[in-house]
Amino acid sequence: MPILESQGYDYFWRPVFDSPPFYCWFIKRDGLGRRTHHIHMVEPDFEHWDRLLFRDYLIDFPDVAAIYNQLKLRLAAAYPNDRVAYTRGKTEFVVRVTGLARQHYHAA
C-alpha cells in the first residue's frame, strides 16, 4: 500500500459486517480536496467481485463504455454535490450490463 500512498492516495480498510471478506479502498483528492480517483480492492469471493466483470465488459465493448461515459457525465452535471443521486442514477445501467457480462463470460 505504500506505493499508492506515496502517489497521494488515502488508504481505508473496511471490514464487512465485522467478519471476512474484507475490502480496502484508496481515494485520491485534487488540490481542493475533491475526490478524483477511487481504487477498490476486494478478495475474490467478495460480492463486489462482479464489478470486475462489469469493468472487463466495458473494456471489451467500447461502445457500451461510451454510453456509460455519457451517462456518468450527465449525472455528474445534474448532481455535482450529491453522490447518492449520482450513484442511484447509474444503478440500472450497471445492473443490466453486469448481467450481460455474467452471460458473456459465463460467470455464475
Describe what you observe in this structure.
This protein folds into 2 domains: 45 residues, no CATH class; 63 residues, no CATH class. The chain has 4 helices and 3 strands; from the N terminus they run H-E-E-E-H-H-H. It has a 3-stranded antiparallel β-sheet with strand order 1-2-3. Helix 2 crosses helix 3 and helix 3 packs antiparallel against helix 4. The two termini are 31 Å apart. The mean pLDDT is 87.
Short note summarizing the structure:
The protein has 108 residues and is α+β, with helices and mostly antiparallel strands. It has helices at 2-6, 50-60, 62-78, 83-105, and strands at 9-16, 19-29, 35-42. The chain folds into two domains: 1-45, no CATH class; 46-108, no CATH class.
Query: Low-confidence stretches at least 5 residues in length (pLDDT < 50)?
Result: none
Query: Main sheet: which strands, in order across?
Result: 1-2-3
Written as H for each helix and E for each strand, in order along the chain, the element string is HEEEHHH
Domains (count): 2
**Shape type:** globular
Distance between the termini: 31 Å
Characterize the main sheet.
3 strands, antiparallel
Number of strands: 3
Give Rg in angstroms: 16 Å
Q: Structural class per helix/strand content?
A: alpha+beta
Overall pLDDT score: 87
Q: How many individual helices?
A: 4
Strand content: 25-35%
